[in-house]
Amino acid sequence: MFCILGILLGVYQYRAKGMSALSVEGGESAAGATSRVDFVSYVVQRVIYWPARGLNGVADAVGRQAAGFWQASALEAKVRGLEERLAEAEKSKVLAEDLQRQVDELRKLQSLPTFAGRSKVSANIAGYFPTQQRIMLDVGQSSGVSPSDPVVAPEGLLGQVVEVSPKTCFVNLLNSADFSIGARVLRAAGQEVGIAEGQMSDQLLLSIYDEGAQVASGDLITTSGLSTIYPSGIPIGRVTKTWENKNLGIQQALVLPNVRIADLRVAVVLTK
Questions:
Q1: Strand 134-137 vs strand 169-173: parallel, antiparallel, or unpaired?
Q2: Could you tell me the pTM of the whole model?
Q3: Which of 22, 158, 214, 219 has the smallest number of Cβ neighbours within 10 A?
Q4: Residue 77's Cα: distance from chain center in Å?
């Protein structure tokens, strides 16, 4: 039936091409006589115009949305790629900075002064035990390390070897409660000598057994050199507070160590 209607409509349109009475002027933009639109076609076009326009709009919107989804997915992939490249660059930057820091530390260790009768054995800090104020180094008996050997860093004294195995050793830091050392107040007016002891805190307690001793905040404290264990003149730290202990008849002070373990990766053991 639809085929028959189509044929009849086609015939009607063909005949209408030459009938001006059934034509509608201005129905199409073409100006030729063969392009005139018949009345039935005009009505059909007007009937289907708005539904067709709506369907086209929907199709366009769906197309734009699909394109948007595709573009968003591509953009997200691109962002992920850039983020990965940035992360790699950051890793490389951190690695480069870490290597540079290690090089700087090693150069500082090389610049340490020599001490008569002592050899310098470089070591990496392999472990840190803050509750015991102790570290582990990756050198031991096979490198000539022995108990009581001093351990130093570029900024000064770090501690003392207390346990040794063939390849490693343990070091008590200055802050350890088991640490004590003969100390000298380095100042032009006089160089008082006392004992510096670890307090399991961030500062040492310096005791000078002379009520008239001259010591003040900011004074540099070094090893005294009055024992066979520690060479003379190794920096220990600086005085932050002083007072007179009248009960004991002595001068006392707090000393902040020059060396901060958090800043260290390497150290030197002074072996005999």
A1: antiparallel
A2: 0.64
A3: 214
A4: 26
